[in-house]
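Suppose you are handed only these lines of text.
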Amino acid sequence: MRILVTGGAGFIGSQFVRAALLGGLPSGPGARVTVLDNLTYSGNEANLAPVRGHEGLTFVHGDIRDRSVVDEVTAGQDAVVHFAAESHVDRSIADASPFVTTNVLGTQVLLDAARRHRVGRFAHVSTDEVYGSIDEGSWTEDAPLAPNSPYAASKAASDLMVLAYHRTHGMDVTVTRCSNNYGRYHFPEKMIPLFVTHLLDGRTVPLYGDGGNVRDWLHVSDHCRGIDLVLHHGRPGEVYHIGGGTELTNRELTGRLLTACGAGWEMVEHVEDRKGHDRRYSLDIGKIRAELGYEPRTGFDAGLADTVAWYRDNRSWWEPLKDKAGIPG
Ligand code: NAD
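From them, the structure of the protein bound to nicotinamide-adenine-dinucleotide can be written out as follows.
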């Protein structure tokens, strides 16, 4: 299968590409992958180092908003797996415009090219954040969209655009919505890699508000396995949840990270809560489980231990990124 992977130099996209080329997905090895990525602050060719030079990989440095490059790379593909996005909520609070242009307009540019070139399947990667916040229970795929951050609103808009191209043009699309991911190669501005790298440097870590916000943490390899199942076996025009990790409050997660890094609570600084901070996300994954036999495989303790060990051993990957992004210590 020839697959165009947008955002393939980012955290999750690069995991998908490495797994697709090295046989770490349910569909097995043998895919030919073209990565389209414009290498924003969070995109990093070093994330593809383990597959550099692989005969199945082509890397194109380009923007999903650029119609001509998108047209060129989409021709001849069997599928598009669309990860490229601005992905950090805090950045969307500071400036929402790149979120609208990349996440909404960029998705529409890709959809038009995929339609023009009769690409077999368009697998759109989205997030549980499109539903807003839920105090109890879990969302099923038909829950109303009620995004709260500009990031979540831009992802909700892109989901609706993808589904509209199915209904209007009969395109073969799928949408996956996943919970919070963690793992190797995660840009060190997000909570787990930020806290781990700060603690490894002996710096304090910032905990938002009362620390009671709840997230479901899923290992990135399980997310990519779910995307691969949906790409190959999901029903056209359908939304599938991917989750089933471990629900933790940010305070509980902080406790686990402190223990993993051998630090105490004196290293935690309580900071003002994020504006519009959603209290809890929770996905019902009954549909992907029943239809596609999906189950997460990586337990949180083992996944977190691997992640912390990786950051400990790979300073040369994250130190320049923190400096470049101006992440204060
Ligand atoms: P990331 O920020 O690590 O990676 C995004 C990638 O997209 C980067 O390589 C970046 O260079 C590229 N990109 C951004 N704008 C682009 C543009 N205009 N043209 C081409 N490339 C562009 O993000 P991530 O955490 O890997 O997230 C990937 C996808 O998964 C996103 O769509 C996100 O909404 C979704 N998602 C993320 C999570 C999570 O926990 N991180 C959870 C659910 C869904």
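What can we learn from it? The pocket of nicotinamide-adenine-dinucleotide is lined by residues 6-7, 9-13, 36-40, 42-43, 63-65, 83-87, 102, 106, 125, 127, 155, 178, 180-181, 187 (CB under 6 Å). The chain has a mean pLDDT of 96.
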